[in-house]
Structures are given as structure tokens and as C-alpha cells.
């Protein structure tokens, strides 16, 4: 059985305590590898290595740091087939999705932040009388922690470590214990890419052990975290007394607003994709479908007819569109939410149960039928709590203001999609919705320069572009007179 390793100070090694955790393939339910069960001792060792590496890395020229990230990106490109299969096996997502989204985007993240650091200029301010110059010196923070979730494993892991390293920090990274494989593969190529020992460290293990130790360590100056809202709140409590910089990318309960004047076929096709891509396990997936009264029945009928035809498949097979959900515990949590919705009077229009495994290999895998629920109001648990699976609800609205009220009736505020051909209405609705992203007549279109993040319980701060480089640096105002004396 393959045993994945931590990367600490350039050395691939197990946990100091010699303990291992099983890593399960969601499509088969079988253990296929193990990861080190790291603790605070491993994190301390990684911090020591990072402390040694920081003085030199923080003064490496931007162009040289960028060159390291580009060489690393080339490794992803060269090993993309292996990474695609590894990501699919580890997470349960179809290989077609890992090939179209996860792995190309991981490569792009490294390339993008290589370019971004080369264009990240300081600001200068000169008063009207030209007596002084103020300039902003952006310094790397030192050692930073990057903690990522399981749903887009390498995609979100690289989205954090790339800006952190580009900005001159040393990183202690922890991928999700549920999907550690692709981060392990990447760690094996760090040295060949030219990343000096100790600049990039990976500590595998459980959230409340290795993750907690990263968050608590006094030498770790900032935490960039993506994961659940409850975990984010706990991390905020832990880091607040140490005044650590904190970036939190958390859960969502994203509305898709379907106005009667939308392009019906496009809205329907994209809403199905935005609801069920990656088995509904993308933080940006739509989960509350809000439909205008006059087209409610037509849209519902067309949607359910299409969703009924969606089949789960073996993620390892080329044609599969819907794979397994990530774990047994997660499958049970999804099905429990559906049961609660039934008890609350929800009408299950399709799905509602675990799906029959697609083949013998997958007999013990974790599959859920794509599920559509009707008839529940905005206050119901299924319309308030994140399910993070292939489960959507339908709600009816009267007019623009009712749609906005329903969309905003949530503790979350990550993303929304708006479907209308009236451009004025589209802009008004977008600006009235409490969310970090509003997509009009599209979904999941990303430009890595844009600010990414959520409002309310969906997070704190923004990632992406220069926002990420600002997060991973500390600005110092330096002031000097322009004249002698
Ligand atoms: P999670 O909060 O359980 O775990 C995320 C990471 O945090 C894992 O690496 C885990 O080991 C670690 N962790 C857990 N407890 C910790 C602790 N006490 N201290 C430090 N680290 C700890 O989340 P998950 O189940 O892996 O991911 C799913 C969630 O992530 C969903 O809520 C989803 O919406 C959210 N998500 C958000 C975004 C976004 O950009 N906003 C993107 C993807 C996923």
C-alpha cells in the first residue's frame, strides 16, 4: 500500500510519531493509500525549516521566484495524465472534470502568480508641495499557513500556495486528509522546480491535529483557509488573540434566479451544470433555484425531465458525467438533509436516495442520486443549511424585489447567478444581492485577476490577483524628504 509523505525542509518523510491514516477511494469505498498522521511536532519541524529558508527566499528576485513557479507548472503539464487520474481516484470526481477543470487550473494558478508577482508594483504618494515622498514597501509576512478542502483539491491548494510563495513567504501547507494525493505529487516536484528546501512544506493529517497546530503556531503569521463555515469560525477564534492575518473562504447556499424573460434553454442547461457539477460539491454551485411565477411550471418540468436522465457512473470511465461523493460520512450527511426536507413536507421531484453503484468495481462506493426538492419555504433547513451535494430546491417568486429578498434570505453570500435578457434588471439584481460574485447569464466564468470571496458567513477577505499578493505581504509606509536636510 502506498504511503504518502510529508515534505519538510526538502525531505519527504512520515510523521514523527510513525502513525498513518487510511486514504479511501470514494468510488470503491476501499483504502488505497495512507498519509502521515502529523501532529504539532511535525508542524514545529516544518516551521524550523521554514525559518531557516525565509531570509534567503524573501530576497530572491521576483523574476527568479516566478521562474520556479513556471518550472513547477511545467511539471504539472508533463504529469497531467497521472494527476487527472489521481485526482479522480482520490475525490470521486469524473476524470473528464479533473481533465477539463482541476488540473489545467492548478497549472494556471502557478503560471498566473508567476506573472502577477512580476507586475506587482509599489505605490508612491507625493504631496502637492513635493516636499516628501511616501512609498509603500510590501514585505513578505514570513511563515504562512495554507489549509485547503477536498472538493477541488489541487486547484484550491495551488490557489493559495502560489501567491504565498511568489510574495516571498515560506509556506506550511495542509491539504485535506480526505484528498491528499495530488498535493503529495506536487510536493515531489518542488525541488526539481528550484524551490529551495524549507520554502514549501506539506504537513498531512487531520484538521483538529495537524491543521489546529498550524493555526496555533506563534511563528505562523497568517492563515489562508478554505473550508466549512464552522471550521472557519473556530480558526478565527484561535487566531484572533495572536492577531494573525486571516483569509477565510467558506460555505455557500447560492441562489440561481431565473426570470421569465431569460433565454430558457441556456438558463436550463447552465442551471443543471451549476447545480450538479462535481456532484454539487463546488462552493459556487447553485443550490436554491428561484423561478419566476409565470415560467415556474414549465421550467420545473423541463429541469426535472433532464435531471431524471442523469446517471451516476464510474469516475474512472471517460464518459462519466456524475461520479461519487467524497466519503461515506458526506454521503450520509447529504441523505440526512434530504430526509429532513421530506419530514418538513418537501416534495421530492426526483432522486432522494443513494444511487445504485454503476458497476461491480464501485459496489461499495458512495453515490447519491441527483435530487430536486419542491414545496419548501425560505426558512426551511434545506434552504438555509449548506448540503454540498447533488441536491437542489425550487422556490417560486413574484417579481424582482421578491427574488432579491429570497436570494438574500441566507446567512451565506458567496455566489449568485441571474438569468434575464433585460440588462437593466440584471445589473439592479446583481447589485442588490449580498454575494461576493454575481454571474449574469453564465456560471463559473473566472478571470484570475478578479477578487474572489464571499460576504456574511461565506468568508472574510478576498483571494485572486493582486488581492492575494496584498494578503501575503505587509505594507510599510516609508517617508523621506525630497530636499536635502
Ligand atoms: P473542512 O472545514 O472540514 O476542512 C477544510 C480543511 O480544514 C481541511 O484541510 C481540514 O483538515 C482542515 N481543518 C479542519 N479542522 C481544522 C482546524 N481545527 N484547524 C485547522 N484546520 C482544520 O471543510 P471541507 O469539508 O474539507 O470542505 C467543504 C467546505 O469547504 C464546504 O463548506 C465548502 O463550501 C467550502 N469551500 C469553500 C470554498 C470557497 O472558496 N469559499 C471553496 C471550496 C470549498
Question: pLDDT average, as an integer?
Answer: 98
Strand numbers in spatial order across the main sheet: 15-16-17-14-13-19-20
| Number of helical elements | 16
CATH superfamily of the largest domain: Aldehyde Dehydrogenase, Chain A, domain 1
Record field, number of beta strands: 23
Query: Could you list the spans in which at least 5 consecutive residues all have pLDDT below 50?
Result: none
- CATH topology of the largest domain, by name, is Aldehyde Dehydrogenase, Chain A, domain 1
Radius of gyration: 23 Å
Going by helix content, strand content and strand pairing, the class is alpha/beta
Largest sheet: 7 strands, mixed
* Distance, first to last CA: 71 Å
Bound molecules: nicotinamide-adenine-dinucleotide
Structural domains: how many: 2
Strand content: 15-25%
Helix content: 25-40%
Amino acid at each position: 500500500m502506498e504511503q504518502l509523505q510529508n515534505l519538510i525542509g526538502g525531505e519527504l518523510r512520515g510523521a514523527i510519531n510513525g502513525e498513518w491514516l487510511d486514504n479511501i477511494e470514494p468510488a470503491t469505498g476501499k483504502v488505497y493509500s495512507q498519509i502521515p498522521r502529523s501532529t504539532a511536532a511535525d508542524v514545529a519541524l516544518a516551521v524550523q525549516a521554514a525559518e531557516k529558508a525565509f531570509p534567503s527566499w524573501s530576497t530572491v528576485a521576483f523574476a527568479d521566484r516566478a521562474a520556479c513557479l513556471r518550472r513547477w507548472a511545467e511539471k504539472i503539464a508533463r504529469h497531467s495524465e497521472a494527476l487527472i487520474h489521481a485526482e479522480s481516484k482520490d475525490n470521486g470526481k469524473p476524470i473528464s472534470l479533473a481533465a477539463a477543470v482541476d488540473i489545467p487550473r492548478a497549472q494556471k494558478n502557478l503560471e498566473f502568480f508567476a506573472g502577477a508577482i512580476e507586475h506587482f508594483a509599489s505605490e508612491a504618494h507625493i504631496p502637492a508641495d513635493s516636499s516628501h515622498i511616501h512609498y509603500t514597501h510590501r514585505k513578505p509576512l514570513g511563515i504562512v499557513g495554507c489549509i485547503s478542502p477536498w472538493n477541488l483539491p489541487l486547484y484550491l491548494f495551488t490557489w493559495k500556495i502560489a501567491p504565498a510563495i511568489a510574495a516571498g513567504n515560506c509556506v506550511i501547507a495542509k491539504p485535506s486528509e480526505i484528498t491528499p494525493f495530488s498535493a503529495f505529487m506536487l510536493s515531489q516536484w518542488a525541488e526539481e522546480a528550484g524551490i529551495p528546501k524549507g520554502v514549501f512544506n506539506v504537513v498531512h493529517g487531520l484538521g483538529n491535529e495537524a491543521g489546529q497546530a498550524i493555526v496555533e503556531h506563534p511563528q505562523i503569521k497568517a492563515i489562508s483557509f478554505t473550508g466549512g463555515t464552522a471550521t472557519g469560525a473556530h480558526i478565527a477564534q484561535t487566531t484572533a488573540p495572536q492577531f494573525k492575518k486571516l483569509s477565510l473562504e467558506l460555505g455557500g447556499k447560492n441562489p440561481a434566479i431565473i426570470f421569465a424573460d431569460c433565454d430558457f434553454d441556456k438558463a436550463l442547461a447552465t442551471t443543471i451544470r451549476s447545480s450538479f457539477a462535481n456532484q454539487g460539491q463546488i462552493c459556487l454551485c447553485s443550490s436554491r433555484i428561484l423561478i419566476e411565477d409565470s415560467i415556474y411550471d414549465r421550467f420545473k418540468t423541463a429541469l426535472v425531465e433532464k435531471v431524471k436522465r442523469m446517471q451516476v457512473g464510474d469516475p474512472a470511465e471517460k464518459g462519466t458525467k456524475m461520479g461519487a461523493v467524497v466519503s461515506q460520512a458526506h454521503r450520509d450527511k447529504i441523505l440526512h438533509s434530504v430526509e429532513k426536507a421530506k419530514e418538513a413536507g418537501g416534495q421530492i421531484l426526483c432522486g432522494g436516495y443513494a444511487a445504485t453503484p454503476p458497476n461491480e468495481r464501485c459496489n461499495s462506493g458512495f453515490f447519491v442520486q441527483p435530487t430536486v426538492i419542491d414545496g419548501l419555504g425560505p426558512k426551511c433547513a434545506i434552504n438555509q443549511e449548506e448540503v454540498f451535494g447533488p441536491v437542489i430546491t425550487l422556490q417560486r417568486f413574484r417579481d424582482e424585489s421578491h427574488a432579491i429578498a429570497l436570494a438574500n434570505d441566507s446567512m451565506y453570500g458567496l455566489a449568485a447567478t441571474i438569468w434575464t435578457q433585460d440588462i437593466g434588471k440584471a445589473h439592479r439584481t446583481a447589485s442588490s444581492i449580498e454575494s461576493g460574485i454575481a454571474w449574469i447569464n453564465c456560471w463559473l466564468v473566472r478571470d484570475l485577476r478578479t477578487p474572489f470571496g464571499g460576504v456574511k458567513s461565506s468568508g472574510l477577505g478576498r483571494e485572486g490577483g493582486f488581492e492575494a499578493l496584498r494578503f501575503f505581504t505587509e505594507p510599510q509606509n516609508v517617508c523621506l524628504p525630497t530636499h536635502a536636510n
